[in-house]
Amino acid sequence: MRPFVIHKLICFVVFAVFLLGTTNAVSQNFDRISDISIWEGGHSLSMPFVGGLIAPQFSNMDFNEDGLQDLFIFDRNSNSIITLLKKNGKGNFEYEYAPQYQAMFPALSQWALLYDYNQDGIEDIFTSSTIYPQCCIEVWKGSRSQGRLTFQRQIFSKGLPEILNFPVAGSGYVNMYVSNVDLPGIVDIDGDGDVDILSFEPDGSWVSFYKNTSVENGLPLDSLQFIREDICWGKFSENSFNETISLGSVDMCAQPFQSSNPGVRHSGSTLCVFDLDNDKDFDLVLGDIGSNKLKLLVNGGTSSMALMTGLENSFPSTDPVDIHIFVAAYYVDVDADGDRDLLVVPNDRTSGLNQHHIWLYENTSSNGEVNFQLRTKDFLIDQIFTVHSGSHPLFVDENADGLSDIIIGSNGITQKDGSKQYFMYLLRNIGSVKQPVYSVENTDYLNMSQLGSLTGRFAPSVGDFDGDGDADLLIGDSRGFLIYFENIAGTSQPFQFNPPIYGYSDVFFGQNAKPQIIDLDNDGLKDLVVGKKNLQFHFLKNIGTSASPDFNTVLSQFPNSNTFGQIFPSTNNYGLENSAPFFFYNDHKLHLAVGSEGGTIRLFTDIESHLYQSAFTELPSQINNINEGRATTISMADIDNDGYLEMAVGNERGGLAFYNTTFKVDTISSVVSSVSQSYRLFPNPATHSIFVNGEGPINIEIYSIHSKLLLTSDVNEVNISELPQGTYIVKVFGRHKSQILKFIKS
Predict the structure, then answer these.
(1) For residue range 495-521, what is the model confidence (pLDDT) as tens digits?
(2) What is the pLDDT of residue 516?
(3) pLDDT (tens digit per residue) in 568-615
(4) In the chain, is it the N or the C terminus that has fewer CB atoms within a 10 Å radius of its CB?
(5) What is the pTM of this model?
(6) 440-453: b or e for each residue (b if 16 or more CB lie within 10 Å)?
(7) For position 14, what pLDDT does the model report?
(8) CA distances from 75 to 111, 628, 687 (A)
(9) Cα–Cα distance between 667 and 701 in angstroms, integer?
(10) What pLDDT does 194 receive?
């Protein structure tokens, strides 16, 4: 947000478009907004813009060197990094969002845990390899200079240089195996001062112990030289096809289970290793991909010879974990009191429980043993705004009070039984023109949940689709259809809709339809652009009238285009891409911003002249540096009346982020308007003069459809006799409002 500046024009366009500078896109800057409040459940959320948490993985690190352990979070749902600072000292569970540290970390994938392996006081990163992502571990060494963290990927001299290796007789060096679905144990197992690693082998039955021999060989701690010390650490076996555990003996590893159906495979286990009973060896808490629970394996052996002798099938015994599905536990110090607590969450990227799903067990022991007491099932998440998964924000003045509200579509809430319910949310702006404050007004806006299993993943768009002066809603869904809500309220009235029409225009667009209503060819009729899963865009030209739009239902048939802009995937994951269009004008020229599955926002121009067959031009821009995680969606409006546009960004985690822009509101180029139209222009068509009727003094500017200024006037009547025949755009400036009109010179 910026200090209030008085401009000649105060724009009342609510769902606006933004002007990407007056020079070129390279000069852009975007700053994260942190001073907007969101109220939910009667209180102001303390960390509304974390962006949601779906499958978070937790580690401790002191980011700001204040002596308190902060929280590093890697959310494997979207490969996102979240950094939280411990606040208000020790003995509480209070944190504040500190996104300034996130950019200091490298891009990570699949899983990530911190451990200070060289004991320099700065945590290092152990993570799934980005080069060999199916199997391996890469390590990033942390360092700090003048308060800034940096990380350098470690290169090893033996085996594949970018990943951890160990020697195998007759085979040289091979990679240490960690499935990208699993979560390894990273801890000093044998107590010799260097870090060791536990991980399930490829068949998912036994845990291998990779012993770090740096200390034994007189090498520095950052040498990271490993041997495979034991292929069956703890002498237990997990069924490769389900979660059953078998215990062995000191002389014999438990044998793997056999299955009558070898075509069904089990993959996915999480390890959390700590000394539960203070007997100087490590016990194991185990999560399984097919289970809602955690198992505890008690080590009855020693630090040098682990032997699991006790099994608790539902851990902890008091208030046992029950979270859908594939649970992971993290042994971290949450309240900064010096002992570690337990955080339990789903590890499934997309199908796990996404409400009441972050369980905090406080360690209340004072004698060195561990005693976990359940404190909350909503740790952190009760202070974060989220629609639980897949947020699709849309700025619009829903109640016609002149303030920008937000409608947010959701990819759904996963229930305890694994089923999903789908909703749209309404955030009401209860602040002022200069300072927005949002309140969660409705968590089932328009009763979208009543559509049941028919549809889901709602992506809303807005525009006056039927030419009656009010804003209608068009919503894309997961199945590839559109849902039409006709607004019957009239101009400058709170939304009031007719019953929805599912499958509007009788067109199947393909999975994850994301529409935008826009007059692309400047003929005065609202067209449709629809993005979908494979990053393809469809352009449907309106062949009806302004009051009764009509479309050719054959997507590939002229005047439609199913190769609109030739915007192809920016990654190799063609089938995984999702395209989220947002049109706007830059220096009176139409541009397109595209949210994507990978999280980046791409920018295109040269649109009007390339509606068919040819490609748009992609522009470099600092907008590309914004990455809120997978499946970004965007909407923009001037929500603080400073003449500049702010940007809301949604993501796969169901959260919301706000960014400032340095781009002025371009009223002549507004793509969508849902505000009151109090000025009237007549006659239309006109031959000699036009007259603009409205209250108070006005200024009038007349533009060509190519945004060239042709005439100005400070009186209501304008002589247009010298203008050639055609369509023209009129900007009307009043004392407290402005408006865009069109007329035809006949």
Answers:
(1) 999 999 999 989 999 899 999 999 988
(2) 95
(3) 655 555 445 678 999 987 667 788 889 988 898 888 988 888 888 788
(4) C
(5) 0.86
(6) bbebebbebbebee
(7) 33
(8) 8, 11, 62
(9) 12
(10) 98
Model pLDDT, residue 667: 54
* d(C-alpha 286, C-alpha 272), whole Å: 7
Instruction: Please state, in angstroms and as integers, the Cα–Cα distance from residue 688 to each residue in 651, 703, 717, 725, 744, following that order.
Output: 52, 16, 10, 11, 11
Residue type at position 40:
E
Q: Exposed, middle or buried by CB within 10 Å (0-12, 13-18, 19+), for 131?
A: exposed
Length of the chain: 746
pLDDT of residue 662: 76
Question: How many Å apart are CA 589 and CA 175, to the nearest integer?
Answer: 53
- How many whole angstroms separate alpha carbon 512 and alpha carbon 519? 22
95 strand-pairing partners: 86
pLDDT in tens, 280-304: 999 999 999 999 999 999 999 999 9
Nearest CA-CA partner of 676 in 523, 534, 512, 490: 490
| Confidence (pLDDT) at 680 | 81
Partnered with residue 665 across adjacent β-strands are 18
| Rg from Cα positions in the chain | 29
Residue 555 neighbours by CB under 8 Å, 6+ apart: 507, 509, 538, 540, 562
Nearest alpha carbon to residue 189 among 299, 296, 114: 299
Tell how far CA 593 is from the center of its chain: 16
The three-state DSSP-derived secondary structure of 559-583 is CCECCHHHCCCCCCCHHHCCCEEEE
d(C-alpha 280, C-alpha 283), whole Å: 10
Q: Which residues neighbour 541 within 8 Å (Cβ) at sequence distance 6 or greater?
A: 520, 521, 527, 551, 552, 559, 560
67: its two tokens: 């002596």
Q: Distance between CA atoms of 341 and 207, rounded to whole angstroms? A: 24
Print the SS3 string covering 175-233. Answer: ECCCCCCCECEEECCCCCCCCEEEEECCCCCCEEEEEECCCCCCCCHHHCCEEEEECCC
